[in-house]
Structures are given as C-alpha cells and as structure tokens.
Amino acid sequence: MSAPLLSLRRCCQRSALLLVARRPQSSSSVSPPPLYRRLLLFLTQRFYDVEMLLSWRSLLKRRGLQKKNAYYGYTQRFHGADTAAAYYILSLKGGFRFVGQPTWFRADRRGKFNWDFLNHKDTPLEEVDMSYTVINYTGLGNLEEQRSLRTLSFRGCSEVDDWFLSRLHVFQDSLEELDISHCPRITIGGLAALRHLKGLRRLDISSLPGISNPGLVVILLEEMLPQCLITATGYDHS
Length: 238
Fold this sequence. Notes:
38% helix
C-alpha cells in the first residue's frame, strides 16, 4: 500500500474513532450526526473500495502502455523491419520520413493515418518524430533495425527515461540530430549515455526538470560531444 493511501486510511480511522468516543451516552433520542461526520464514517468504511479502484486504474494504465509498446515481431517477420517500424510509429500517433522521400507520414489526432507507407517496403527511415507520445524503452526496440536514422525527436515524451537513452547507442553510426527536451524523467545519469553518439550534430535538452545544474551539464556534454551544438533553454540560470 502506498504511503499517501496508508496515511489517508489512518486519518479516516482515527477521525471515526474520535467521533464514536464523543457520542453521547444517553438513551434519549439524539439528532443525526452532521454531514461531515457521516462523510468521515463513510470514507472509513469505503476506504478499501477506493484503494482497489485506484489499483485497478494503475494496473490498466500499465497494461495499456505495455500493449502500445509491444514488439511488432509478427509484422517485422512478414513485412520487414522498415514497415514494422513505420506502423509502430503511426500507431503511437508519431510521424516519419523515408530515405530519399520528401513526404512525411503522420497520424492525426484520432490516430488515423494514410496506408500508402506500405508502398515503400524495404525503404529505411531517415527522420522520426515521436514527440508527446508514450514510447518507452520496450517500444524503442521496434526502431533498432533502422540504421539510416539521422533525426530523432522525443520531445515531451513522458516515458523516456535514463534507461531509454542508454539504448540509443544503436544509432551511433547515423544519428545527427536528437531532441529530448521536455522529458520529465531524464536525469544527468541518462545524458551521460549519449557519449556514444559521436556523429551527433544537434542536441536539444531544453526544459528537463530532472536537471538541477544545466550550465554544468551543457559543459560536460560539449566535452563529450565536441562537434555537437547543444540547445538548453527553459532553465532559471539565476
């Protein structure tokens, strides 16, 4: 049981016991207790029901996340790694561009997309935009076969963390631009894993709440990646 829920249960139980202790010991008719007292008693009695609902909600959320980031092995086996990667990106409402093609394929707000990407079988991806999607460490496995990726954007991705960044080394031979700005779970430990991306030319680490000393971090990144232009805005440098 989580600490906030345990604290809430103890508070309700304590309040309920106090209310019972203060109840007049008289056989005469007594007016109904005030609404707030009845509410506290109700919360005490229904605490486990609320806890169960919250647990189920958390479980369903985790299962939904796992399903969205499942490995598209079947699609890859029958349609190739490029088509499987493209389908995974669109299923998460992301976007991409094939090598040598000017057209971007993107899903709309409702998750609908154009199936014409199937006409580019065995064409690798060159640019991928997964901004504000729920891609995570497991889902990144669907992109690992892409050896021509030059640009990756994970801007505002809530599930991108330090472990996720440690897996980006598979793109070290091709990746030139990386955007991991506005990702709340990234810390300086994860940024250290970017040292493998020696070909990186642009890196955006703006507005990372897990970074406490952005100035020092930028200096360290510039030493690790001397050919890379680091962008770090959205911090209070006072």
